[in-house]
Amino acid sequence: MRNRFLAETYRHQTTNALGSAAKKIGDPELINLSIGDPDFVTPQEIIDEAFVQAGEGHTKYTKPSGDPQLVTAIRGFLKEEYQAHVEQDEIMVTVGACHAMYVAMSAILDEGDEVIVPDPYFVPYSDQVTMAGGKFVPLETSFEEGFQLDLDALEKKITSRTKAILINSPNNPTGAVYGRETLERLGKIAQKHSLIVLSDEVYEAISFGQKHVSVLEIADLKDRSIVFGSFSKSYAMTGWRIGYAIAPEYVIATMVHINESICFSAPSVSQRAALSALRQRHALQPSLVAAFEERMVYGYRRIVATGTLDVLRPKGGIYLFVDIRKTKLGSEAFAARLLAEKKVLVLPGNVFGEAGEGFVRIAVTVDLQKLKIAFDRIEEFIKTTGD
Predict the structure, then answer these.
(1) Tell me, what DSSP letter sits at residue 16?
(2) Distance, CA of 169 to CA of 153 (rounded, Å)
(3) How far apart are CA 252 and CA 88, in angstroms?
């Protein structure tokens, strides 16, 4: 009886791993390497400009598709970075990239339409597909293959109900980065089977040693893709909740229509802060990206030095997907014991899909001093795993 007011869909819901991890935070001795919310504060220049903009009256609704000046600035950014010509009506500003993705799913999916997603995957993808009425179809990737797309295996997954392929590069949780050749081959497959490619590029700025390749640069994908971007990680603006979608005009128009019944527009002050971030990105972003790279490289070196754990060499993003299989512990057991015995909070790899079993995800969201303490504790812990 206690559940009779809930929709049938949610009466037996499972707990989202990200939400569960957040509930464990509070112990002062805990080192939290679970949620992708870095310790960096938004650059003061962005904060100051947002206050000025609020004082000048930017506290009302904007256009449902976004503040026109911000949309124009996003267009300029895409042109400069990727030589991509995107029209004003092909962009929608949203309350973070997850919001953009859910509205996009709602716009394109009919009941039972299939979306192929490389596994491991960002936790919300599965729920977003199913909540929009679609069918989530995982595509296994492996550590041994660098968690790269097996495009032959992908093509075998395609059925008459396949509507879209969802990719994420740099990838959360694995850290994999897809190169131009992979995206060009993916474009050929999408053209052949008349599919949409959904491309989550929220970590595009956080790339190490090579420039990010966007699907907007791929001729076969430009007109059949929906790209998701965000200001959260690349400008330390997680709490401002600003993202965006880039898609053909008819998709954006439908997304705007759907969103008018959800939240109408993204927060105006946050949009002005995002505009400030874009205008100052060449001055503000390099130090932030360098700090993430330093942390990722440090974590990588500590992990491989154990001789028991392993991880891919960092190419982008803020996550290390650590191979724990030599410890003989499952993902959940490893994470639970590490938390209980050493007060280091990581996420078990299996919450990111079946292919994540045997791994844990570490988010490099604390400074090097805390990372050192965390990895010291992890080293101590793995010495006990054979007990």
Answers:
(1) P
(2) 19
(3) 10
> What is the C-alpha separation between 206 and 289, in angstroms, rounded?
6
3-state SS class at 350? helix
Under 8 Å between Cβ of 65 and 93: yes
Give tens-digit pLDDT for 185-229: 999 999 999 999 999 999 999 999 899 999 999 999 989 999 999
CB 214 within 8 A of CB 227: yes
Q: How far apart are CA 201 and CA 232, in angstroms?
A: 12
Do 71 and 91 touch, CB atoms closer than 8 A?
yes
| E-only strand ranges, the chain | 31-32, 91-94, 114-119, 135-140, 162-168, 196-200, 225-230, 243-246, 319-323, 344-345, 347-348, 359-363
Task: Round to whole Å and give the CA distance between 347 and 198.
Answer: 25
- Do 248 and 101 touch, CB atoms closer than 8 A? no
**Which residue shows structure tokens 């070196």?**
301
pLDDT per position as a tens digit, 261-316: 999 999 999 999 999 999 999 999 999 999 999 999 999 999 999 999 999 999 99
Relative orientation angle of helices 268-279 and 281-305, to the nearest 10 degrees: 90
- Of the candidates 154, 168, 183, which has an alpha carbon nearest to the alpha carbon of residue 124? 168
Residues 84, 80: Cα–Cα separation, whole Å: 8
DSSP state of 199: E
Q: What is the pLDDT of residues 80-124, one digit of tens each?
A: 999 999 999 999 999 999 999 999 999 999 999 999 999 999 999
Residue 23: the pLDDT is 57
Residue whose token pair is 């956080």: 206
Q: How many residues does the chain have?
A: 387
Structure tokens at 102: 């859910």
Q: What is the pLDDT of residue 8?
A: 81
Residue with tokens 């292919």: 355
Nearest residue to 246 (alpha-carbon basis) of 265, 267, 222, 275: 222
Is the confidence at residue 16, as pLDDT, over 70? Answer: no
Look at residues 372, 363, 374, 378 and name the one whose alpha carbon lies nearest to residue 174.
363
The letter for the amino acid at 9 is T
Task: Identify any residues that bridge with 320 across adjacent strands, giving them in sequence order.
Answer: 362
Axis-axis angle for helices 281-305, 44-55 (nearest 10):
140
Structure token digits, residue 332: 């959940």
43 secondary structure, DSSP code? P
Q: What is the spatial distance between Cα 98 and Cα 230, in angstroms, rounded to a whole number?
A: 9
> CB of 254 within 8 A of CB of 217?
no
